[in-house]
Every structure is written in C-alpha cells, then in structure tokens.
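Input sequence (401 aa), recorded before submission:
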Amino acid sequence: MTQIIVFMVLTVILVVTLAFVILKSAYYAIAFIIGKTNPASFSRLKKTAILFAVIMILNVGLITVSQLTASTPPIVDENGNTPKNSIAELRKIELNGRKQWISIRGWDKNAPVLLFLAGGPGGTQMAAVRHELSELEKHFVVVNWDQPGSGKSYYAEKIKFITPQTYIQDGHALTEYLKERFSKDKIYLVGESWGSALGIFLADKYPESYHAFIGTGQMVDFVETERIDYAKAMEIAQSKGDTALIERLKANGEPPYYGNDVTWKSAAYLNYLSAYMTSNPSIHNPGYNTFRDIASSEYGLLDKINFFRGIINTYNQVYQKLYTIDLRTDYTELDVPVYFLLGRHDVNAPTSLAEEYMQVLNAPDKKIVWFEHSGHNPWINEPARFAEEVLACFSENNTQE
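Predicted structure, token format:
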C-alpha cells in the first residue's frame, strides 16, 4: 500500500510539473518570438524541467523495484511457523513461447496439485484465491495462473492475437509443467466463470491429465447468457423505475456485441446485476475485496495497472470470440468427473443453463452442489463451505498418485 501511495503522489507531482513545463515553454516561445525573453523565466523553466526528469526517474525506479520485489507470502501455521515441507512461490514460466506468471502455494509440496482457472477473460485472481481459499492450501498444492492478457501476464501475447485456443494451448502446457514439476500423472482443475468454460475445454481435449473438474459460476452458452443477463437487468431496472439504465440499455441494444466497446456495453448490465446481488441479503460476503487484492504483494505497480487493463482490454477482444460456444451441444461427452458448485442466487451466469448442461452431459461422475447463500462467486460468498465441497468432490476420486 505504501508503494501505491508514493506512486500516486509522484504521479500527481509529475503531471503538475509537466503541465507547468508545457505552459512555461509556450510562454517562453511566444516571448522569444516577440523579443521579450526573460532570463529569470527561462531559469525557472529549466529548473522545473530538471525536477520533472528527476521525478520521472524516481517513478520508473519505483515501478521497477515493485516488479522485482513482488512475491507471495510464505505459508504459516496458527503459531506463525512455516511448515517444513511447504511451498510458496511466485514464478515466471514460458508456455508455448509466451512468458507468464503463476503462484504455487501449499503446506505440503507432495500433496495433489490443484490448478485454479480465473474468470475473465482478462481477470487475475491470484491474490483473491490466496485470501479466500487458504484452507485448500492445507490439502493441495494450489496453483493460480495469470492467463495471457491478465495481471502479471498481460504482455504474454498481443491482445489482438489472443483466442480461446491460446488459453487451451497454454493451459495444457502449464498442466504438463505441473505434472513434471511435482511428479504427478494427473492434477485437479477448478474454474470460475470464464475459467469454468476453459476447464471444460481442457478436460475435453486432455482428459488423461485431470482427476476431476469443478466449475463454479459455470458458463455454458455465452450468447444466451448475455441475452438473459440483459433481459434480467432490464426487468430489474423497470421494476425500480431506473430510467437512466433503461435508456442506456435500449441505446446499446440487445447483445451480443462486437467491436471496440464490448466491455463498456456489457458492463452496463453486468455491473448492475453485480450490484443487485450485492444488495441481496441472502448472499453472504457478496463482493470482491478489490482494494485488498490489488494491494497484495503478488502484484508490482505495473501489475496493479494491468489488473484493470486486462479486465477492460482483454475482455473486449476475447469475449466476442466465445459467442459460438455452447457446452450443451459442443461438449456433451467428457471422460473426467465434473462437478458444479453453484450459487442459488447467481444472476450473472444463469444456473438454468448449467442445469440443462448437466442433464445432457455424459461423464464418469457428475453432480451439482448448491450454495444457498451465494451468487456468482460461491468461493467468495461461502469460502469455508466451498473448500469443504471441493474436498468432498475430489475425495470421490483418487487423490493419491
């Protein structure tokens, strides 16, 4: 947090100084043209320019140091001691030629490996999962992956070149890396929101690599989800007489959206639905702790900026490439056990679609577990129970190699 405050202060000074330099330069240029230059004025301009350069160097230095010192905290028990066989790493790796970041955390580095697939596309939940699901670290080696175009991996690939296939290829490469690193034949998958679809893609294409898959905030049909969400937001807005949102939704038109403003058009109803869930008294711990997460030690100052750039830019470019996907018709045969942990009050990813998908899905084992006090994020709304259900689902399969 100190780094953020210092960075913001320096940035404000930098902007003010730059504005002063520009104005003074314009003034001095005009004075020079009309032959009324003032040596004292030029001296002040020179000093301000030097100050600007010094502050710029300090800011760049601060960003560099923050990036180099980013880390994930050590595992500690209730007495503040670090378990002897624990692991806590923040690691840069190369997947298919793309440099990306993962965190690896667990009380016992010989435990089964669990790969958590974040939402988005473009979202990073490296810190959020550590805060909310630390209980899982006692039973698994929990791996969080900043996917291309998100957080610490924002520059892994040019945004315009990222496709769903990019995530499948890199997710597989990461899986192979983890299997080799920890001497495992298979690992476990948990995916939330967009990550819940990516988990299905990986389980479908590489079933030999996974013990089982858990999806939460389960995405099924991206186009139908957007249309249902739009209609739900319109329904709520009309019931509340929220004319501003009604007009905005009408102006945007019904999804799906294409082009350069997908994020902002989608945000009109997605943010509204998120606020609606936040106000629902039946949902516990209703929202992300964004300030806590972004201030976490895993993110340097540049990562903190890219935290938001991924949500905006990567989502905008990639989401419209998902509109052709419908799990109910494209992924009905899986050779991996599949479990959905769903919030009863989720109005972001319609649970009716997940139920329909579960009905047509043929898998070695499958079931839906309902969370009565959750919305789109049971792992945040009811983290203790979520961890219990993950253990229960995965214990139905072999957790030993």
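Checked by second reader. Strands lie at 87-95, 98-106, 113-117, 141-146, 187-192, 210-216, 338-343, 366-371.
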